[in-house]
Amino acid sequence: MNNKYAVIGNPINHSKSPLIHRAFAEQEKIDIDYQRILADEDKFTQSVNEFSSHGGLGLNVTVPFKIVAYQQCQQLNEYARAAGAVNTISFDSKMGWLGANTDGIGLLTDLKNNQRLQLKNKNILILGAGGATRGILLPLLQEDPTRILIANRTVAKADALANAFSTAGNIDSCGFEEINTQAFDLIINATSASLSNEVPPVPSSVISTETICYDLAYSDKPTAFTRWSNKLNAKISTDGIGMLIEQAAESYNIWRGFRPDTKPVFKLLRPVN
Ligand code: NDP
Fold first, then answer.
1. How far apart are CA 260 and CA 144, in angstroms?
2. Protein residues with CB under 6 Å of any ligand 1 atom
3. Which of 7, 56, 216, 252 sits a CA distance of 20 to 30 A from 243?
4. Strand pairing partners for 126?
5. Displacement of CA 222 from its chain's centroid (Å)
6. How many CA atoms within 13 Å lie on the side-chain side of 216?
7. Is 130 exposed, middle or buried (0-12, 13-18, 19+ CB in 10 A)?
């Protein structure tokens, strides 16, 4: 079998990517060999070269290698360039490693197609200013929202991101305690606070019954953020499983020119929904 793909990271055992991509391959009616690669932190390039020289066609890249992947790719698409990070690599015998970033498009597709939210003229609050926020800013701004406010614990990081993307749209930054008290149309939790069962210290007045609250973190149980926003009667409180599935679909499309239907994969990962 030569339809060889993989996800590379460290740790990697928890990754749902093999399950998702095998489901996509079933839809395309092809056999796929999609594995997890655990790479030592200092052996990313070596591991990728090994995979490619053994017939690997494409790689997903996850923590902690997205930035080194960006540095090593010979070609980058516009979202990888804006994100400063790569989560999808294709191999081309002439052009070398082709780097893409599908995280932002994955989020956008989930918001638009699955949550039925159009972002034009909307007020958006993003909590957190790490790699995930950098990755989603360009596709969000391209939808022409009224404003994006980035709030972060370390304010300087939020300021730096707002500056870097200021030419792409109306974007501001502040600390959590400086968030003005208006309700937002969309709040994206792009902090990793849910991973330690915490909610960033933002006033509850940012949520109205019309607010969509989206935690990029995902878990089989409700996250701290979705529990919090649910309690405050947000219109929708969801975690990032949809972003995970949609970014994978975008990667699959880049590799194979086949756009899978993601609905059956939602059912596979969240059977009770
Ligand atoms: P980074 O480590 O790059 O950034 C972490 C961010 O969280 C920083 O802004 C940090 O603030 C903030 N933070 C961490 N702990 C707390 C806390 N206790 N309270 C408030 N703020 C906190 O992580 P990423 O940007 O890569 O990832 C962020 C989240 O997005 C993770 O939960 C990750 O799992 C998720 N993610 C989901 C994806 C999906 O497909 N669904 C894809 C990519 C990411 P400071 O700058 O002050 O340190």
1. 27
2. 103, 128-133, 152-154, 157, 190-196, 198, 200, 216-218, 240, 243-244, 247
3. 56
4. 150, 188
5. 18
6. 23
7. middle
What is the whole-number distance in angstroms between the Cα of residue 195 and the centre of ligand 1? 9
Catalytic residue among 66, 112, 221, 267: 66
Strand locations in 193-248 (E): 212-215, 236-238
DSSP state of 195: G
Distance CA(227)–CA(230), nearest Å, equals: 5
CA–CA gap between residue 109 and residue 250 (Å, rounded): 9
Work out the burial of residue 85: count CB atoms within 10 Å of its CB; fewer than 13 is exposed, 13-18 middle, 19 or more buried: buried
The model's pTM is 0.96
For each of the chain's 273 residues, which pLDDT tens digit applies? Answer: 689 999 999 999 999 999 999 999 999 999 999 999 999 999 999 999 999 999 999 999 999 999 999 999 999 999 999 999 999 999 998 999 999 999 999 999 999 999 999 999 999 999 999 999 999 999 999 999 999 999 999 999 999 999 999 999 999 999 999 998 789 999 999 999 998 999 999 999 999 999 999 999 999 999 999 999 999 999 999 999 999 999 999 999 999 999 999 999 999 998 875
